[in-house]
Amino acid sequence: MRLKFWPVALVAAAVLVSGWRTDTSAQSYPDRPVHMLIAFPGGGTIDMLGRILAQKLTEAWGQNVVIENRPGAGGNIGAAAAAKSAPDGYTLHFGAQTLAVNVTLQPSKEFDPVKDFDPIMLVATAQDVLVVPPNSPFHSVKELIDYAKVHPGELNYASLGTGTSGHLATVMFSDLAGIKLQHVPYTSVSQAATDVISGRIAVFLPTLGGHIGNVTAGRMRALAVSGRARAVQLPDVERILAMPDVKEKGVTLYRFVGGSPEKLGAFLKSEIAKWAEVAQSASLK
Fold first, then answer.
1. Helix or strand or coil: residue 66?
2. E strand spans, 70-142
3. What is the pLDDT of residues 12-27, one digit of tens each?
4. 11-124+253-281: CATH, from 3.40.50.720, 2.40.170.20, 3.40.190.150, 3.90.1150.10
5. Model confidence pLDDT, tens digit, residues 136-160
6. Fewer CB under 10 Å: which end of the chain, C or N?
7. Contacts of 163 (CB under 8 A, 6+ apart)
C-alpha cells in the first residue's frame, strides 16, 4: 500500500500538563518554579524550541521554568515521567508527534496520551532536510533514489529512534520513492550527526533547524527539503516533492503555531488515528 500523504507536521511540538484538575487559582499561578520535561535529547529541534518557550514563560511569569531532558523510547520516558507528576500545573510535558505515534508503534502502559494529560498548546511545526555526508557520491535526490533502487537495503539512515520524526519521515520518503533503506536508530542527535559527517551513515532526514549549521558549513550536503516551497535558509536546495518519484501533498512550515487547548486536544486525537494508518501502510507494526 502506498502512502497517500506527506504529513502536515513531520515534527509537531506541543505542551501538555499532567491532569491539571486542582483548585489552583489562575491569579496566583505560578507562585513557584515550573518544571518542564522535554522528552528528547539536548541539542535537537524539540529541545531548542522547548528552551525558547521556557525562557519566554520565565519572562512572562516572573518564575523560573526549569528544563529537564528525559529522552528515550521515542519520547515515552519523558511522557511517563510527566504523567506521574502531581496534577498541580507545575510539571509541563514538552514533546513531539511521537506522543501520538507511540500509541501504535510502542504503546506504554504507564500513561495514556489523551486521558493522562490536559492539552495546552501546539507550539510549532518544522520543515525537514534530506542530507548526506559531504563526501557522498549523491548530489541529487534522483541520484540517491536511482542507486537505492538498484541496491535495495544497502544504504543506511539515521534517526533518533523508532517513531521519531526522522524515522517516520524517512519511512515515508522511502515508500513514496519505492526504495529500501536500512534503519540505524540513535539516542543522541550529536552522535547521529557525527556519523553522518564521517560517512558512517549514508542518509539523514532531520528537521532543518537543528542542522542548518552543519549544512551551511559544508559538514553535510543537503539534497532536498520537505514542503511545497524551498527553505528560506537554503534557497538553492530543491524540494523532495518536486522529484518525479516523490509526488505527494506536503507543506513547508517551520513556524510557531499557537492555538487553544481544545485545538491541541483535537489535533492529538487526529494524529493518533493518522499515524496508526501510516504505521499500517509502512508495515511498521
1. strand
2. 91-95, 117-126, 129-132
3. 556 665 555 444 555 6
4. 3.40.190.150
5. 999 999 999 999 999 999 999 999 8
6. N
7. 74, 75, 98, 101, 102, 105, 106
